[in-house]
Write the structure tokens for this entry.
Amino acid sequence: MAEWLKDVEALTLKGQIKVPYTWSVGEVGSRFLVALRDEKKIIGNQCSECNTVYVPPRKNCGTCFREIGEDEWVELGPEGIVTAYTIVRYDYPVQPTKAPFAYVIIKLDGADVGFVHIIKEDLDKLKNGVRVTAKFKEDRTGHILDIDSFVIM
Amino acid sequence: MEKIAIVGVGQTRYEKRKKGEIFYDMVYEVTTKAMEDAGYTLDDIDSVITISNDFWDGRTISCMAVQEAAGAHDKNVSTVEGDGTFGAFYGAMRVLAGCKTTLVVAHSKGSEGDSKIITNGMFDPVYHRSLGLDAISSSALQANAYMEKYGITEEQCAMVSVKNHGNAGNNPYAQLPLDITVQDVMQSRKIADPLKLLDCSPISDGAAAIIIANGENAEKAKTEPVWVKGVAHCSDAYFLGDRDLADPRSLKDAARRAYAMAGITDPLKEIDVVELYDAFSYMEPLWLEGLGFCDPGKGGKMTEDGVTAMNGSLPVNPSGGVLSAHPVLVAGLARIIEAVLQLRGDAGSHQIDGAKTALAHGINGPCGQSHCVWVLGRD
């Protein structure tokens, strides 16, 4: 840095990039989100080669690299077991709720992979191995946050 | 593998806020430093890789905006959006593919954007982004999974922070040298359990560059060449729930392949110094396990026993590591540069005496989704 800059305030330029997107959620994503919205159900799908049950569902199995078929849908949860958690102590605009709240990885009943979501209440009772169940919102729009949060049972 | 070497390195001082320098200035600084180090002119460089990220830069196709500063005008240029170790991997491939030399340069400024919003943007928009996850909260999930599985303690992780911030005191390029105690780390502000403020790397500005040359051109450099003995990378699944966050499978695979290339069978005995990507304190023991320096779950003990200290049998992050300066993308290149300095005997007061073989490591994606492992040697 030039010597003279040390004695003055360097100019800065404020700006923001704000780009609206409309992402396709895809074939399996649509089915998953519609099940949340219309039936308050969490669904996944199963690779019939390695038998892994995925949630959210996948178009293809990453391990076997084969397409997961139309007849391989399974209903999961809504209960499950917490396998990892963190209690978040800071607030940020991208978060869906006020801190403190928790991120959790949940092994939903019937699933083989973890499902990431949030817990808002009873944080003092939260530990790995506790059973939780999905709490759905009244007004659902076909969104991952149609599940308001998971609650400790 | 055909012989290739790192013949020149350059880095800025890493700082919280480089208000006086724009991206272009930082890239020019490290490019000229790396060329001076190698004793090369622009004519000696025939290929350039620039590394950047559009969100951190705040402009799209950011990698194309620093070409003249990188000496890339009228040259064969390509770009990488990812950690510097991966950009350097591409640079090495170019030299192996016939380029005589490749300059690899990375830049980023954490101070100018918003790290939580940017790292939130790495998550899938349909399923994960609207949960608000970011680099810190996702890593906190990994820290929890790792500690739970093996009984790694918060104190053991705090020891990593104490060690690395202490090492940074000897490195003039580091941003955050700190003389702290385990108690200071334990009592620092809770961020996302089990992570506390002093378990987390800082937000940093900086740039770094290296020059990779083929055997013939390496001999023309004025520096003692540092040879690439082995290098490999590997990726795990994108979704956090698909992975065992306490088992860095992709790191094990990358390490296995890099060691095979380098002819290493007992890494703990054969490697003299390690520079790894400790964005959070827990990552150091976890990556040490993945790199095969100890059994799974024993990484915390390695720190506790002093094995990884400056005077231990396997010094880890003598530079102060990523905990002491975290310019995103640049940080992996900084690990390679520290390894090079160590092997050349140019590491000043953070020199590990007699280092002959060094390992440098970088990560990409949430919670170390992918890993890149470099084994470098003097002979």
Summary: The helical segments of chain A are 26-39. Chain A has one domain: 22-152. The radius of gyration of chain A is 21 Å.
